[in-house]
Design brief:
Elements lengths: L2 H20 L4 H14 L3 E7 L2 E7 L5 E7 L7 H15 L5 H13 L6 H19 L3 H19 L5 H4 L1 H19 L5 H9 L5 H12 L3 H29 L19 H10 L1 H4 L7 H22 L1 H23 L4 H9 L4 H12 L3 H28 L7
Antiparallel strand pairs: 1-2, 2-3
Helix pairs in contact: 1-2, 1-4, 3-4, 5-6, 5-9, 5-12, 6-8, 6-9, 8-9, 8-11, 10-11, 10-18, 11-17, 12-14, 14-15, 14-16, 15-16, 15-18, 17-18
Length: about 400
């Protein structure tokens, strides 16, 4: 292979790997997809993906060899950009565009703006807080309070700071959410403080983060998985500590309370809020508009499968059953629509990830209930592992289209 041709291929594969990392793909997906891409382009490649770096080695089987180390920034999942990256990869493989054109398209995808503005962000926080509050259960008073605090969290998210303050953003929003909730509870004593705080902060819970970490560890990506798991635990610590600080500040305030009784939310309201909550995953994952219906269907499908499994098999096996159904269905979706399976898979498990369980675990520890904290932490790991194994089992039932 000519040196210039070798360099062109290597440059594109490296940019392709950075693009996959930038849209939030887990380590085993990035490594597997880059490996497949290298083979399709006639190269031998070895890859190691970590949350902050990608290590790559290329060879053409002859004299040409090169090793690259790239520093990358960890970001969230962006299914809209993932779909576009997948399209560019197919165009390059099928020789519809050159490597340089593919490289330019990937740069264009990366620099594109968020399709969802400030208004959608507020709507996202509002409906997510309301939807999860209904799933957790409570009164209409809890419902109104959750919406109020949730919208406040959305407003804080819009004016998100940068620099050192941004590193403490999770703790700051937790302090505000806790303070406002406790003040509302002082005014209306019947409110369920725990449910309101949890539903308003559910967006910041690293449940998906921890689930991806468990998946990476399960696929022997130990460095990446461990680093991601520690990162998820640190987010939980900041949130829990913020809630603790907010409750202490609220204890300084004293004022008369109102005697108001709220009725319990009927069970059938869940079937109204579930589609709305699932639809909000489109904003969270920044999906393209033509994928909206599939993302919404995936969220509803995963939740109902998990609930059905939990009813007859128990919580752990119910989570496994939900993960298996989502894993298999996401591969069917990928085959039928010729799109990445993640477009169905991540929204399908977003309502199942055990982030709230991890928060409860650390809350117990802050209350000096060590036994309760350890028990809940073990429950979180068990549920996350059951979900991951379920998704892997679904991949066995229905073979993935390819690494993506």
């Amino acid at each position: 292979m000519e040196k210039k041709e070798f360099q062109r291929k290597v440059k594109f594969i490296l940019r392709f790997g950075r693009a996959l990392h930038a849209v939030g793909s887990p380590a085993h997906t990035i490594e597997g997809t880059m490996q497949d891409m290298a083979q399709l382009l006639g190269l031998r490649g070895s890859f190691i993906s970590q949350p902050t770096a990608i290590l790559s080695s290329f060879s053409d089987g002859g004299e040409e060899e090169v090793t690259k180390i790239e520093r990358v920034e960890p970001v969230g999942v962006n299914l809209g950009k993932l779909s576009k990256v997948d399209t560019v990869a197919k165009e390059v493989i099928q020789n519809q565009i050159t490597y340089e054109e593919g490289y330019a398209k990937l740069d264009e995808i990366w620099s594109s703006k968020d399709p969802y503005g400030k208004r959608w962000t507020l709507i996202y926080f509002l409906f997510s807080a309301a939807g999860f509050m209904v799933l957790f259960g409570g009164t209409w008073g809890d419902f109104i309070a959750s919406i109020t605090v949730g919208v406040l969290m959305g407003a804080l998210s819009i004016i998100r700071p940068i620099g050192l303050v941004a590193q403490l953003f999770d703790a700051i929003v937790a302090v505000v959410a806790s303070l406002v909730t406790y003040l509302l509870a002082k005014l209306i004593p019947g409110l369920n403080i725990g449910v309101i705080i949890l539903s308003s902060l559910i967006i910041f819970m690293p449940g998906l983060f921890i689930t991806i970490a468990i998946a990476e560890i399960a696929t022997q990506n130990l460095v990446s998985g461990t680093a991601r798991l520690v990162g998820g635990v640190m987010i939980l610590l900041k949130l829990t500590f913020g809630v603790f600080i907010g409750s202490k500040i609220a204890s300084w305030f004293h004022y008369p309370s109102l005697d108001i009784d709220f009725a319990m939310i009927p069970w059938w309201i869940t079937f109204v809020t579930l589609p709305l909550t699932a639809a909000m995953a489109n904003v969270n994952f920044k999906t393209n508009r033509d994928d909206w219906r599939w993302v919404t269907i995936a969220g509803i499908f995963g939740f109902l499968c998990s609930k059905l499994g939990a009813k007859y098999l128990g919580p752990e096996l119910g989570m496994f059953f939900g993960g298996a159904c989502v894993g298999a269905m996401s591969n069917i979706f990928a085959r039928l629509k010729n799109k990445p399976s993640a477009i169905f898979q991540w929204p399908g498990i977003i309502l199942l990830v055990p982030g709230s369980v991890g928060y409860r675990s650390l809350s117990f520890l802050f209350e000096r209930d060590v036994l309760g904290g350890l028990e809940t932490a073990f429950t979180m790991i068990t549920l996350a592992l059951a979900l991951v194994v379920g998704v892997f089992f679904g991949n066995i039932l229905i073979k993935p289209r390819r690494s993506m």
